Amino acid sequence: MRVAIAIPTLNEEENIGELIDSINATNYAEKEIWVIDDGSEDRTIEIAKSKGARVLENFPGRRGPAFGWNKVAKLTEAEIICPLGADFRVYDKDFFVKCLKEFEDEKVVSVFTSYRTIQDTLLEKVVTQKEGISIEPRFIRKKIFLAVGGFPEI
Question: pTM score, two decimals?
Fold first, then answer.
């Protein structure tokens, strides 16, 4: 089962390389990494390309993360969409294997995961208290995602 990992970016040169490296270090082969850049003025695009990601540049920029996630869903042929943020990291080499195994059951539409934040804001600490649950699906069937109109673009 193929998964499209969609990562919207805006000036994420400090994060994007580590995220892509962490994804590439996993044991799941059927993945494609998409970076949808929103007008970065740093080395985000250069780093993403050097790590093997497919890079799309928004023109005009500043369209927001939902635009990027939705764009990948429309372009990919993968069955599963994995919307991430550039500040995510994948620490479990079997993360994709474990999560995507759930889709063997045709009734499964999406998978939510726990996470630990690398953000050091008070809000993140209060919300996650070390480990929280994602507030949006971490994996979702593309056909369902498109049928409901994707994420609202605000």
Answer: 0.86
